[in-house]
Design goal:
It is a single chain. The protein has about 375 residues and is of the alpha/beta class. The chain has two domains: about 190 residues; about 180 residues, Glycogen Phosphorylase B (Rossmann fold), CATH 3.40.50. The protein has a seven-stranded parallel sheet with strand order 3-2-1-4-5-6-7, sandwiched between helices. A six-stranded parallel sheet has the order 10-9-8-11-12-13, sandwiched between helices. Helix 8 crosses helix 13. The longest helix has 14 residues. The radius of gyration is 22 Å and the shape is globular. The termini are close together.
């Protein structure tokens, strides 16, 4: 069957995930959410007849649980994928060389979807003698997909190392998951003005230099030095394990806001718990990682987001990269005007987030065209 005939028939597409079950949650990393948003789009593609999750985890690791019920498509294993699919999108679980060679021999197409700053992650891994990040060597891909946030740092890296054409694809996001969580907990997702001094949340993962808490902490330090009365508390998440010793402990101890007792270092919490119970505002920072779901979830809820992303249109309160004084300006401006201008803030956010909609016609067309191009008759 020719490539065009297969497309006309309707393609069966799988998206890889690593499903171990047990206490696994959609909220433990962005990959799980990304996979669901991609499946939401694929189910609306005119060239896709069926969509599946391909579980790349060994069966011995699978512990049952409710995680699979949170996914939007049925789950199949690698054996079923070999015999069922026309296209596999490698996203949340790596494919194996032998499997991919056999899949391609029977006419399958393989797309690698990369949603992290792999260049930085791999350079840091090399410098620290750690295993590499998302890249896999030796597999023949039909396309590599990256995101606008990583186009500058990763496009040439992927093209040369993985020897495949690279496409920059729209970052996908929908309020579906955060609203589903709100419905399950019975707590509507949204900012509620209360007139109290703000409690700040800093939620960077602190696992790689592209997203750490250092600059947000320095922004809050500058605000505290100028107007200490406006801060009620500062919660630094994903930082509890390294806040007690080493360099970071010395860094934190140098800050007035830490010495004042306003700062708490905590493990990873779900964003809904943080913004319902612990914080009014999010202060964030990135280096070449300008798109992430934390931003979108905050904007959708109308929560004040202090950020340095050039890819959020005019949403949130933006400051200049690495400029802690400008970040303090942005945070103080948000404190002064957010409640009075909340309706406009929400309207701008809704308009921007609509451009990321997996069900939006332009996004469905872009992804469908990319998949179709894998089947140009060879």
């Amino acid at each position: 069957m020719t490539g065009s005939a297969r497309v006309d028939r309707g393609l069966r597409v799988g998206v890889t995930m690593f499903i171990r079950g047990g206490d696994q949650s959609l909220w433990e990393n962005g990959i799980h959410q990304n996979a669901n948003f991609l499946m939401l789009l694929l189910m609306r593609s005119p060239i896709v007849s069926q969509c599946f999750v391909v579980n790349g985890a060994p069966k011995a690791l699978h512990k049952g649980g409710n995680f699979e019920a949170e996914l939007l498509c049925p789950v199949i294993d690698m054996v079923e994928a070999m015999n069922t699919l026309d296209v596999v999108i490698e996203l949340g679980a790596h494919l194996k060389d032998g499997w991919t060679a056999q899949f391609r021999a029977r006419g399958g197409r393989i797309i690698a979807m990369r949603v992290a700053n792999d260049y930085v992650i791999d350079m840091e891994s090399m410098a620290n003698t750690l295993p590499p990040g998302q890249l896999v060597y030796g597999i023949e891909y039909d396309q590599i997909w990256t995101l606008p946030a990583f186009e500058r740092t990763n496009t040439a890296y992927y093209a040369n190392l993985l020897r495949a054409p690279v496409r920059t694809m729209t970052h996908l996001w929908s309020p579906l998951l955060i609203e589903r969580d709100a419905q399950a907990t019975g707590r509507p997702w949204g900012y509620k003005p209360d007139g109290a001094p703000w409690r700040i949340a800093i939620m960077e993962p602190n696992r790689c230099s592209v997203k750490t808490c250092h600059v947000p902490m320095l922004i809050c330090e500058e605000v505290y030095r100028r107007q200490p009365q406006v801060l009620a508390a500062m919660q630094v998440f994903n930082a509890d394990l390294f806040s007690r010793e080493g360099y970071f402990a010395h860094f934190a101890a140098a800050l007035d806001v830490v010495r004042s007792g306003l700062v708490t270092f905590r493990p990873r919490y779900k964003i809904s718990r943080i913004m319902h119970d612990l914080a009014h505002c999010i202060v964030s920072h990135h280096v070449d990682n300008a798109q992430n779901y934390l931003y979108y979830e905050a904007l959708h809820g109308g929560f004040p987001l202090i950020h340095n992303s050039a890819l959020l249109a005019d949403c949130g309160y933006r400051y200049r990269d690495l400029d802690c004084e400008d970040g303090a300006r942005a945070l103080l401006a948000a404190m002064a005007c957010h409640e009075a201008e909340l309706d406009g803030y929400r309207a701008r956010s809704r308009a921007f987030l609509k451009t990321l909609d997996p069900c939006g016609g332009a996004n469905v067309a872009q992804y469908s065209a990319a998949i179709r191009d894998c089947f140009v008759d060879r």
